[in-house]
């Protein structure tokens, strides 16, 4: 738990850092804008004010003979200086000052622009007045100080306070600090940027780039696909063969082959979190990509509610998967032959499609039925690759049920739309029932336009040869089924009877009954046993594979190698004899010449002597 918590914290910190990096241009612009605003405000909107100050000193009335001040005198003078400060701010003094100078302001306005401060630990009072006009600030300060002194003499009949420094004409405004204002606005810009990042972190919890899949979802990133806006022709065809998006599909195909190679997986489930993320389009084009390398491919539209594979390939929707499952008899050969009525050919060579068919009242139960398991096993012996286009996992549980009987599962995420939390939830649900997720695909990623025209250019002749090869490999549904029947007749159909018996060994008590509350414990127990039986089926199926064709090819290669070796050996012997004849024709006195025939006779004599002994 502690390890997972630390990992989650590091992931969240990394996500904040990624947001900062992704928004660095915007953050820089915000800081520049706030800096400019600070400069404009400081230089153009701050009204300069001038402050003039008079300093007044309180002189104690009584001083002891030893010229020292007692504590009582200090207390009395301290109270007196506070009293004088309050008198300086008295409305009577303020009004008299206004009248003497004929100022156009009220007492409150003058009070807001004046200050009477006592310096710490002293008997000094500073009276200051602020004004936009430096001359006015000086005149008001002087008059206010004089009025104050006269009022003290009249009220208290005392002459114990006097002016030490008269107010002078201020030279610089006291409220203009350009650097300080700019720094203040810059700090405000930093705070605004940080607040924006926090808002994005809280509300924009979506996948942005390929790295996010591995960093936040912890699954393999199989690749990304850019935006594709050709709604009339959704399949990437010959016109797009040299485009960047076509190369992305080829990369996806290669990565899927690599991930499935270890477990010899033939069936691939493709799903997403929510609708409109492009999983049907991805499924169709991945199936097309496999067909281009001469694989016999079947695309199954398992989205029985809103499947759209028929619209993508423009085939009839009637009689599809739901009808096929309903018509299955349990007889292996008959069930395979039934595929002729439901599996349809497409315009793509080697690619066939099984549409969703009539919408059933219980799609989830139909997809999790034994007929669906048997159908997948049957079709794996007919096609090289089976792509299952499943419904979104956040809406229904169809994909979660299917993931238990399909070899591999791929998640499709929409860039800047799919939430990290949603994809993590789907991943947890599939893995919780034993599904095998091999990776995720980031769809509809924004890329620069030049990538579509400049990258990954191919020679037209190469593409033409590929298309010719595909046309040669074009096979009909009937032909594929006939080949599968011939292959299965060689192996024996009893393998399917054994597999069916294994499936029927699931105890009645572990099977969730109709209408009963399906608890998580019973569901996991049921799925676990199903997976065990399916694993046995796969192992049993692999051991029954007929390798006669491969062995014949290997024997033929070995025969060719043997003939080549004998031919090469004859050539070497002929060359050796010719060399001997040339050597005999040369000067016999040469010491460097070796009599090969004599040497051979000597060796033969030694061998005969050795054999006699």
Provide an overview of this structure.
With 613 residues, the chain is α/β, with parallel strands linked by helices. The chain folds into four domains: 2-46 and 176-200, no CATH class; 50-63 and 70-165, EIF_2_alpha (Alpha-Beta Plaits); 219-447 and 473-505, Rossmann fold, CATH 3.40.50.300; 560-612, no CATH class. 56% of the residues lie in helices and 12% in strands. It contains 24 helices and twelve strands. The chain has helices at residues 2-22, 24-45, 71-88, 91-101, 107-113, 134-156, 178-203, 210-217, 244-261, 279-291, 309-313, 321-327, 332-342, 363-367, 370-380, 398-402, 420-432, 451-454, 460-472, 477-491, 494-504, 520-543, 548-585, 596-612; strands at residues 50-58, 114-118, 124-131, 161-165, 221-226, 267-272, 297-301, 344-345, 351-354, 385-389, 408-414, 437-445. The strands form two sheets. It has an eight-stranded mixed beta sheet, with helices on both faces. The chain has a four-stranded antiparallel beta sheet with strand order 2-3-1-4. A hairpin with a 5-residue loop joins β8 (344-345) and β9. α2 runs antiparallel to α7. The chain starts with a helix and ends with a helix. Mean pLDDT is 77; it is low at 62-67, 451-471, 506-521, 537-546, 587-603 and 605-613.
């Amino acid at each position: 738990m502690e390890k997972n918590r630390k990992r989650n914290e590091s992931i969240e910190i990394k996500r904040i850092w990624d947001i900062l990096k992704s928004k660095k241009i915007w953050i820089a612009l915000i800081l520049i804008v706030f800096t400019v605003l600070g400069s404009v405000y400081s230089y153009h909107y701050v009204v300069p004010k001038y402050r003039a100050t008079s300093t007044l000193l309180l002189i104690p009335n009584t001083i002891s003979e030893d010229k020292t001040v007692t504590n009582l005198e200090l207390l009395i003078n301290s109270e007196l200086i506070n009293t004088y400060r309050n008198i300086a701010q008295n409305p009577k003094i303020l009004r008299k000052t206004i009248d003497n100078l004929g100022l156009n302001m009220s007492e409150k306005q003058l009070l807001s622009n004046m200050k009477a401060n006592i310096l710490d630990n002293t008997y000094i009072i500073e009276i200051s007045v602020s004004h936009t006009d430096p001359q006015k600030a000086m005149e008001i300060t002087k008059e206010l100080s004089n009025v104050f002194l006269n009022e003290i003499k009249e009220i208290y009949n005392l002459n114990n306070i006097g002016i030490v420094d008269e107010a002078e004409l201020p030279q610089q405004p006291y409220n203009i600090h350009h650097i300080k204002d700019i720094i203040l606005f810059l700090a405000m810009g930093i705070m605004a940027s940080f607040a924006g990042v926090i808002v994005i972190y809280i509300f924009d919890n979506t996948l942005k780039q390929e790295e996010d899949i591995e960093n936040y979802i912890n699954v393999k990133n199989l690749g990304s696909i850019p935006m594709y806006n050709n709604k009339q022709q959704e399949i990437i065809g010959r016109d797009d063969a040299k485009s960047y998006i076509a190369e992305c599909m080829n990369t996806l195909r290669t990565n899927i082959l690599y991930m499935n190679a270890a477990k010899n997986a033939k069936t691939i489930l493709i799903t997403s979190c929510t609708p409109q993320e492009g999983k049907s389009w991805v499924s169709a084009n991945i199936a097309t990509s496999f067909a281009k390398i001469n694989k016999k491919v079947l695309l199954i539209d398992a989205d029985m509610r809103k499947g759209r594979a028929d619209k993508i390939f423009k085939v009839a929707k009637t009689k599809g998967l739901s009808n096929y499952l309903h018509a299955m008899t349990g007889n292996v050969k008959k069930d395979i032959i039934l595929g002729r009525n439901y599996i349809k050919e497409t315009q793509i060579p080697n690619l066939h499609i099984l549409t969703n068919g009539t919408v059933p009242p219980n799609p989830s139960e139909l997809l999790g039925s034994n007929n669906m398991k048997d159908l997948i096993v049957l079709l794996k012996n007919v096609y090289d690759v089976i792509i299952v286009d499943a419904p979104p996992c956040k809406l229904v549980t169809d994909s979660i049920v299917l993931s238990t009987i399909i070899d591999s599962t791929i998640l499709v995420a929409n860039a800047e739309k799919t939430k990290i939390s949603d994809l993590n939830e789907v991943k947890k649900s599939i893995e919780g029932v034993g599904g095998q997720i091999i990776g995720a695909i980031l769809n509809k990623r924004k890329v620069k336009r030049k990538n579509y025209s400049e990258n990954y250019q191919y020679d037209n002749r190469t593409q033409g040869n590929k298309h010719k090869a595909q046309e040669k490999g074009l096979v009909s549904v009937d032909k594929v089924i006939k080949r599968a029947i011939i292959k299965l007749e060689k192996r024996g159909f009893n393998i399917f009877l054994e597999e069916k018996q294994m499936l029927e060994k699931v105890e009645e008590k572990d099977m969730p009954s109709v209408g009963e509350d399906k608890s998580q414990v019973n569901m996991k127990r049921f799925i676990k046993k199903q997976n065990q039986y399916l694993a046995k089926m796969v192992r049993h199926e692999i051991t029954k594979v007929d390798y006669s064709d491969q062995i014949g090819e290997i024997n033929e290669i070995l025969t060719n190698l043997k003939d080549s070796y004998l031919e090469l050996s004859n050539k070497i012997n002929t060359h050796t004899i010719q060399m001997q004849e040339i050597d005999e024709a040369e000067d016999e006195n040469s010491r460097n010449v070796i009599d090969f025939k004599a040497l051979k006779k000597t060796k033969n004599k030694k061998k005969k002597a050795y054999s006699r002994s």
